Amino acid sequence: MAPKKSAKAPGGGADKDGAQEEPLAAVILADTFSRAFAPLDVSAAASSSAESIESCALLRPFLNVPLLSLHLRALSLARVEQVYILSISHADVLREHLTAHPAPPGMEVTTVRTPEARSVGDSLREIDARQVIRGEFLLVQPDAIVGMDLAAIVEAHRARKLKDKDTAMTLCAMQVGENARSRGLHAPLHVLNGNSQLLHYAAHGVGKAVEIPNEVLFLEEKEGGDGELEVRADLVEAGIDVCGAEVPPLFSENFDYQSLRGDFVPGILTSDLLDSKIFMHVCGSSSGAAAGPSVQKNGYGARASSTRAYDAITRDVLAGAAHPLVPSSNIWPGERLEKRGRALVGAGVALDDTTVLGPGTLVAGGAKLGADVRLARSVIGPSVSVGAHTAIRGSHVWHSVTIGERCSLDRSIVASGATLLDGVVLGRGCLIGPGCVVGPNVTLPPFSRVGAREHGDDDDEEWSGNAATPKTAAAVDPALGAQGKGFLWPRAGEGRAAEDDDDDDEEELDAPLHDYLGAEAGDIDDDASDDASSIGGDSELLDEWDGSSMSSVEDADMHEGAVGASLIIGGDGANGDETAADRAEANARLADFKTEAVASLKRAFEEGHTTDNAAIELKTLRMASNVPLSEVRQVAISFILDRCDAKDGKQTGAILDRWGPLIETVASDDEIEAVAMMQTYCALHTSHAALFVPLLKKLYNDDLVSDEAIVAWWRSPAARDGSEARGGEAALELRRRAEPIVRFILESAEDSEEESDEE
What we know:
Blueprint lengths: L24 E5 L19 H6 L6 E2 L2 E2 H11 L4 E6 L3 H10 L7 E6 L6 H11 L6 E4 L3 E4 L2 H14 L3 E9 L13 E5 L4 E5 L11 H9 L5 E5 L2 E9 L3 H7 L6 H11 L6 E8 L10 E4 L1 E4 L3 H12 L19 E3 L2 E3 L4 E2 L4 E2 L3 E3 L4 E2 L4 E3 L2 E2 L4 E2 L4 E3 L2 E2 L4 E2 L4 E3 L2 E2 L4 E2 L4 E2 L4 E2 L4 E2 L4 E2 L4 E3 L35 E3 L39 H5 L6 H5 L21 E5 L5 H32 L3 H15 L3 H14 L6 H19 L3 H14 L7 H10 L5 H9 L13 H9 L1 H20 L1
Parallel strand pairs: 1-4, 1-6, 4-5, 8-13, 13-14, 17-20, 18-21, 19-22, 20-23, 21-24, 22-25, 23-26, 24-27, 25-28, 26-29, 27-30, 28-31, 29-32, 30-33, 31-34, 32-35
Antiparallel strand pairs: 2-3, 6-12, 7-15, 8-12, 9-10, 9-11, 11-37, 16-17, 35-36
Helix pairs in contact: 4-7, 12-13, 12-14, 13-15, 14-15, 14-16, 15-16, 16-18, 16-19, 18-20
Protein name: Translation initiation factor eIF2B subunit epsilon
Subcellular location: Cytoplasm, Cytosol
GO molecular function: guanyl-nucleotide exchange factor activity; translation initiation factor activity; translation initiation factor binding
């Protein structure tokens, strides 16, 4: 048989000389080597298969789909033929899962036990020792959420390697905006040349001053670049990378390489002995950030490496900001879902007529929701039962959980098999481990953690989530209620205090507080303290509530000290004419987009299209015109507000009731910017100045934007921008008028926490 043409790679084929390429392989790591999700991944005993599954990071549910299923589906689209799963202690559980849920056709999956592995480096040294990798392979982190064209990325890597044999690796990353949910507190620093080669990397974030070693400038000249460097602090790790066959041996040659980006990448870039080169593939997210020259394709990629990131990525996907990752689409490996209002619901869900499903909510098939249950921005797993008069907000409830009546959950995660009895209140950021019982009538303060085993009983070989025989039988902790079962752990962030002396073991510690779901700026007194303190000074409200912003994820002040996008250094100006032409072309595309988008919205209004169809039409136009999502926000918000009459409250209310979900959709990945756009519009149009405060109340009451976002907007530099383009003094006056709403939100949050403390 004649060899396949290279156009049919990357799944295996011939190179340009006719030599047969090795079939494309993938290595999936089953362990995170982190305690970021503890005690959610700490089971009571190894004998329970359900709890053992929960202790395996690779089988952790994401929107009720095991992460492994998402990985295998993505790899099958890239035509990967051989997959190796490396696991410290869950090989048997993974084999059982694969027996029940087979891999896609044409893919062979081998599970490899690596009991001695304590890091990514150890895992790759194990792969090298087995000599099973003979060509390029995809390295997949267990918590990666990826919607990229992996086949195209592999093909580009192979083409680059044909030209430059020193090409060892292509790192995948996603560009994010400054206020994007998926962006962490600190963004790593990347320095690239014009060929997308990575020249410098700093993993721990940057401040306002960026230092680039002089050697990097010389390296750019050595690599024959165009003299232009791109400094980027707007990228997040995608969790999947393309590696050459030489990568595992490089780990074997240097046992100091433990982590991939913390050790291996800087080691390769600074080595005087190695000629290996690392390149970057950057996909442009829908955040609306300005695209740098290294941005190559649409797509989505991020790591759910902490409970904060897990929630942020979940919200991105549910908001449609992570295309092509769309629940219930043809490539989604989970159950089929139907849309009910602004929520997604699986088959066989038992709903009472009084149940309220708010926006950004997903309820899996087989769940039972009682009377007057209220859900907002939450994910409910299969076979979950929720009792009457219970409110769940911003939370994740995994499968087979029982929640009693009159309970309240705020930005918390409840692991599979847990039970919350009647009257249980979980403050923000609570984590309830598998099989634990809390209640009845118990209030847990923010960031409480309840584990199936005692804290510290998951050390050493068990710290990555491996099941083991507990030191103590299941006990009743008085703080968990009369029928409680489990152990109360130190609150999130407190587990680091006694262990912070050894920075080298940082990955073995509990995650820092800012990495936990529910963390707010006022909770963080280390990295963010300077930023948080900078927000006071221009009003009584700010002085009173200094540092009390509702969300570290969406608070613009949390990121003021970081470089927010890319910076181009150098260049000889030779391409000045081309740059001007490109700019003119971009302006023309933008003008065409605005014209077509307004026409599309006009048709949607006149012909009564659904908001979903209107949003799809706008998205199609944006992709065809290649404009930032911020332009979609601007057009949609301006169009809707233009049709509102501030003097006719009934007419305005009807328009916002009908088209408010479209505002929610376009605002989903940067709610702060969306509110700022509304402020600017109302400031520039004097007829709409009286509309701004009622509009803000409507956004809050209908949950079109989160209360955290409203507070974060009020504190943001954009809200305090009195420039002429923003509306001048009129914009500042609108911010002052919004103060009572912000005060109400903050006081409500404060009262809620005080009530929790009193109870």
